[in-house]
Amino acid sequence: MDDEELIHEIRKGSRAAMEVLVKRHYHSIFTYVYRKTGDYHTAYDLTQEVFVKMMKSLGSYRDNGKFSHWLLKIAVNHCMDYFRGREFKQQNRESELTEEALPASEHQNVWNIFYKRLQNDQVRQAVLRLPDQQRDAVILNYYNGLKIREVAELTGTNESTVKSRIRLGIAKLKEIIVGGERDETYRKPK
């Protein structure tokens, strides 16, 4: 059953269809929110809220074959609301690297697991240091696999702006991870 068929069943009152739809899209929404917030527990809570909003807004969804984009747009807007909100401003931004957020393999030795966690943490911290608009563009394009056009639609910007944000975001990530952060206040005399 595709998403539109599930939505049709949900509108008729099917709880089973709702569970299938949520399970189908939960991982991608949680992954986006986690990469955006950098905190497992916050991402868990926000993801739950996204799906509550989805259920409340399902009546306004028009069956056009792009449910996943519609749902991701809800997640993008919900994260923007969260970062503008009082809870975020009051919250301590210390985030932990948790077991649930990291891939694990039974065949890796302890050193490889430690090294992979260290690398994941460095990349995650670097992504969190990007300006919001660059972070959104990079996460949506690279991690969620959206095309430039789709990122532009979700963020309400044009494609050239998205391309620029991705290019600048990747350059900034490279500076942070590979070469340290450049001091923007110091300029070499010409």
Automatic annotation (TrEMBL):
Residues 21-86 form the RNA polymerase sigma-70 region domain. This is RNA polymerase sigma factor. Belongs to the sigma-70 factor family. ECF subfamily. InterPro entries: RNA_pol_sigma-70-like, RNA_pol_sigma-70_dom, RNA_pol_sigma70_r2, RNA_pol_sigma70_r4_t2, RNA_pol_sigma_r2, RNA_pol_sigma_r3/r4-like, WH-like_DNA-bd_sf. Residues 121-173 form the RNA polymerase sigma factor 70 region 4 type domain. It comes from the Bacteria. NCBIfam families: sigma70-ECF. Keywords: DNA-binding, Sigma factor, Transcription, Transcription regulation. Pfam families: Sigma70_r2 (PF04542), Sigma70_r4_2 (PF08281).
